Amino acid sequence: MTVTSNIRPTLILASTSPRRQELITTLGLPVMVRPSHADEKTPGDWSPDRIVEELANRKARAVWESVRGTMKTAAVVVGSDTIVVLDGRVMGKPKDPEEAFEMLSRLAGNTHEVYTGVSCIGLMDGQTVTNHRVTKVRMRQLSPDQIRRYVQTGEPLDKAGAYGVQGVGALLVDSLEGCYFNVVGLPLSLLAVQLEQFGVTLP
Ligand SMILES: Cc1cn([C@H]2C[C@H](O)[C@@H](COP(=O)(O)OP(=O)(O)OP(=O)(O)O)O2)c(=O)[nH]c1=O
Q1: How many CB atoms lie within 10 A of CB 200?
Q2: Of 195, 107, 194, nearest to 146 (Cα)?
Q3: Residue 199 neighbours by CB under 8 Å, 6+ apart
Q4: Using the 8-state DSSP alphabet, how is residue 129 labeled?
Q5: pLDDT score at 4
Q6: Pocket test for ligand 1, best of 24, 33, 93 (most atoms within 8 A of CB)
Q7: Cβ contacts of 107 within 8 Å, gap of 6 or more
Q8: Under DSSP, is residue 79 helix (H, G, I), strand (E, B) or coil?
Q9: What is the pLDDT of residues 7-17, one digit of tens each?
């Protein structure tokens, strides 16, 4: 897609995540949201970076396929995927409170990595840029009671690794090394770099 610097493409966010929807508005470009229902299964031997880049691209591609041909304005479809990795073991979203408790018991007192993949696809020509970022997060020691109380807030259930650093989960996190927004699900500086490759000028 050729976008000259005075054109502001619409960003089509391929996501159901309210966090991503809020974060993407920071770029100051028009935003449309189109939930993507891409298959999120990957082979067990894939590396974390391969998983998040592939899933981000699947989400973006599914939406790109459904909207191309229906819009005439310049647009870029954005897909994103986040996982938590502890000692090489991948954690997605917990399926129930019991699994959330297990995940948090493993993360407490340890340092893990949060991987987020972002994939951008130009609406007109399908130009694709896909990358990922990694952030290290140190979680403090937690007693089983503390973990139980946090799980009862309901916050862990729709989040990779069963916590949300932007919410009550902030009380569990000792320190963080890398992009904060990567942990929340959309690394904004990475997205800015990717959009520059489409000729978009941002502040
Ligand atoms: C670790 C962490 C994850 N998360 C969230 C970001 C993602 O929304 C979610 C990981 O699940 P994803 O599968 O990446 O995304 P999603 O299902 O929420 O949304 P969609 O696929 O439609 O875009 O975990 C937080 O909000 N805060 C955190 O601190």
Answers
A1: 22
A2: 107
A3: 1, 2, 3, 4, 5
A4: E
A5: 47
A6: 93
A7: 84, 86, 139, 161, 162, 163
A8: strand
A9: 789 999 999 99
Give me ligand 1 centre to Cα 187, in Å.
12
Distance between CA atoms of residues 22 and 26, nearest Å: 8
Tell whether the model's pLDDT for residue 113 goes beyond 80: yes
User: Which residue has 């073991």 as its token pair?
Assistant: 89
Q: Tokens 């994103």 — which residue?
A: 80
Q: Kindly state the tokens that stand for 21.
A: 């929807």
Q: Which two tokens stand for residue 191?
A: 């997205």
Contact 198, 123 (CB under 8 A): no
Identify whether the C-beta of residue 12 lies closer than 8 Å to the C-beta of residue 77: yes
Ligand 1: residue of 19, 61, 82 to mutate (most ligand atoms within 8 A of CB) is: 82
**Domains by residue range for the chain, with CATH:** 10-196 (3.90.950.10)
CA–CA gap between residue 8 and residue 14 (Å, rounded): 18
Q: What is the ipTM of this complex?
A: 0.98
Q: Does 91 contact ligand 1 (Cβ within 6 A)?
A: no
Structure-model confidence comparison of residues 73 and 50, the more confident one? 50
pTM of the model: 0.95
